[in-house]
Amino acid sequence: MFDRLCIIGVGLIGGSIARAARLQGLSKSIVGYGRPQDRQNLETAKRLGVIDDYYLQIGPAVLGADCVVIATPVASIESIFALLKPHWSERTIYTDVGSTKGSVVATAERVFGVVPDNFVPAHPIAGAEQSGVEAAVDDLFVHKRLIITPLSHTRTDALHQVQDFWERCGSVVSKMDVQRHDAILAATSHLPHILAFALVDMLGHQDEQSEIFNYAAGGFRDFTRIASSDPTMWRDICFANKNEIIPLLQQTREQLGKIQRLLEQDDSQQLFAIFAYANTARQRFLNQFEGNMTKSITFQVQPGGLLQGEARVPGDKSMSHRSIMLGSLAEGVTHVKGFLVAEDALATLQAFRDMGVEIEGPVDGCLTIHGVGKHGLKAPQNELYLGNSGTSMRLLSGLLAGQSFNSVLTGDKSLSGRPMKRVTEPLAAMGADIKASEKGTAPLYITGNAGQLQGIDYVMPMASAQVKSCLLLAGMYADGATSVTEPAPTRDHTERMLSGFSYPVKKQGSNVTITAEGQLTAADIDVPSDISSAAFFLVGASIAPGSDLLLKHVGINPTRTGVIDILRLMGANIEVLNEHIVGGEPVADLHVVYSPLTGIDIPEELVPLAIDEFPVLFVAAACAKGQTRLSGAEELRVKESDRIQVMADGLQILGVDAQPTEDGMVIQGGPIGGGVVTSHGDHRIAMAFSIAGLRATAPITVLDCANVNTSFPEFKDLVKRLGLALVCEES
Ligand code: S3P
Question: pTM (2 decimals)?
Answer without folding.
Answer: 0.72
